[in-house]
Structures are given as C-alpha cells and as structure tokens.
Amino acid sequence: MSEANKVDISKLTLADKVLGGSGLVFMVSTFINWFKISVDGALGIGNDFGGGNGWDVGFLWGRLPFLIVLGILAWIAVRLFAPGVKLPDEIPVLYLVGAGLVGLLVTLKLLIGEGDSNSIGISVNRAFGLFIATLAALAFGAGGFLKFTEKGGKMNQVQSQLKQVSTQVSGAAKTAVDSAKEATKEAAKTSETVTGTVTETVADHMPPPPPPTPAAPPTP
Length: 220
What we know:
The protein is mainly alpha-helical. Helices cover 60% and strands 10% of the residues. The protein has helices at residues 14-29, 59-81, 92-112, 128-150, 158-205, and strands at residues 33-40, 46-53, 122-126. Strands 2-1-3 form a three-stranded antiparallel sheet. A hairpin with a 5-residue loop joins strand 1 (33-40) and strand 2 (46-53).
C-alpha cells in the first residue's frame, strides 16, 4: 500500500474513537437477538421459541438508529480520509442531536420492552443483544456530545444551530422542487417536439390517397 493510500489513524480524535467504536458495536448488536420468546410448559418450564433482533422490532427502534449511526460514521470517515470529496459545512449540533437520538430510542426500547407476557403463557423477554445495544447507544450519545463540544459547539447555541439546519434543509428542498419543475417543463417540451417530428415524418412517408372511383355511366 502506498503512502498516499494509508489511513492516518492519528487524525482520529477522542470523540471520533468513541463514536467509531460504540457505533460499530451497536451496528453488530442489531443482528443479535434483542428479545426471546418462550412458552411455559406443563411443569412451568419455559421452552425457547426463538426471538427477534434489532431489525425485527420496528423501524423506529432498530433500523432508524442503525441508519443514523451509519450516516454519522460515514460522514466522519469521508471528512477525515477523503478530503477531496466536497461536503457541506459541519454543523456541530447535528452530532449532538443525531447521536443523542440513537441513545434515547434504544434506551426507551429497553424500558418499554416488546409485550413482556400475556395470559396464555407466552412471554417475550429482553435478550442479551438489547443490553449490548443499549450500552453501545449510550456510549454513542456520549461520543456525539464530545464531538459537539470538540467542534466548538455550546449548549446555548443549540437552538440557533437547529434553526440554521432548518433553513438549509428548506432551501435545499425548494431548490430540488424548482429543479424538478424545470425538468418537467423541459421533458414536456421535448415530448411535444418529438411528437411533432414523428407526426410529420409519418405524414411524409404515407402513400398518397387512391384516386376517386369514377362514377358509373348513366343507364340508358
């Protein structure tokens, strides 16, 4: 591997290391059972009937946190190791909000559970994977706070930075809508032009209509 292609680990700050380590652990933990299902037998002995992992508990509790973690880690990796890629300016509050949301959602899932029991002896209990996921998500939230402060963010600036994000998102959405409208107009013009050209071409290549049939001579 050439010197230019080597990954310089020294670029990683403490916040990057906390986010990277805890984020990877969390993503792996989503593939481990978060809940296990058991049915009480005749002698009160529970029989294991499998369970579900972080991808089985709904988009909000497992998939959304996974996507947020993946997005933040990808953002940091590109900024550190692919400086040639042009990215929008960093907004420190996004680290705080994104990582904090991951910790909040997974912790709520641990507390809420997945319908722990019912009247027919079927119980759904928390499994090992959920506890690992919760610890990793909380560490990821702490890493987000470290990254927020590392980038100069202050708690009294959170509201103003969120307004800045809202303004940028609204501007980007408006630009996308305007671009879509222009593209639709251009497509309509192109369609009209093509239709007219095809119609003219077909008309030019159509054989002339047959001559009219002469009238029959009058009967004497």
